[in-house]
Amino acid sequence: MTSPPSRSRTRNLVVFVAKALVAILLIGWLTGSGHLDVGALRILIERPSLLALDLALFATGMVVATLRYQVLLGLAGVVVPFSTLLRLQMTASFFNVVIPGNIGGDVVKALYVARDAPKEKRTTILLVAFVDRLLGVVALVMLGMIIALVRPSVWADPLLRPLAAVVAALGGATLLGGAFALFVVRKAGARLERYTSGPSKISKLLNQLVASMRLVSAGPRRLAVALGLAMAFHALGMAFFTILTQALLQREVPYSSVATVFPLGLLTLVLPISPSGLGVGHIAFKRLFEAIGLAGGATVFNVYLLGQIVPCLLGIFPFLSLKRAGELPTEAQASAVAEDSSAR
Hints:
The chain has helices spanning 4-32, 43-46, 48-73, 82-98, 105-115, 119-150, 152-156, 160-196, 201-217, 220-249, 255-267, 280-291, 297-309, 316-324, 331-343. By secondary structure, it is mainly alpha-helical. The protein has one domain. The model has no long low-confidence stretch (mean pLDDT 82).
């Protein structure tokens, strides 16, 4: 009889293979139809300045993500040295790209911190990982809304106007919905946690959302700092994406135009349809670029995405150093942390 862990690993492998097939089919169709020029990746070699900017963006992302996580860990009253968190962040990026399955690098990073923390803080530490990821999505939408609102040229362009309206509506809904949720949670958070507790996946997700909202409502200043860091990095990402677009399409493309499509395109990567959004993101940027009168969206996204994914492989070095030193949590320790957190 197959043991539960074996069934889980088999299921994760089947899901990963299915996602990989989706990515292969979509990228194959785009390449065959001429919408994706894979050879455009050579621009990073032919123009060393672009490669330098790409690596600088990656390095900045690692630093900003580490700072953001360090700030959010303060919600749990946990202090971890920046150098340790940076190694964990690079290890997490390596896991997210290389290791198939549902246990991503963010979980490994959280388990490492939770393993050495007092038991009463473990649940909060695991929630911080969820809050951190959610905050990245919120920051992306909010930044897109701000740029759409402060740039009159976006609303004057009939092609950009519908997308700007969508981005602004998403940002407004996120802002108002988040404020309302925080208000409700502060007033009746404990009761909501009891009502959403249950064995089903939906109940667990709702319970996690409520618990996360209760966590961030207790530290609004830390939340604001973490949100600001996330928005600053997304702004840099948009700037580099704009430079790539101009270089690949060989025409002037305003930053504000890219800002109307960038958030919507990256939001599709949240959908668990393919590994790292391969194929799905390509299709999204192809359609979004066409909506603003540009071609080559899939190609620009391909260069941007692979330019940020490939450096993640460098995470193998801190991963091996942590593993060699016995600092990474073992499977037994990870199970103990997870069981202890579930019990609470």
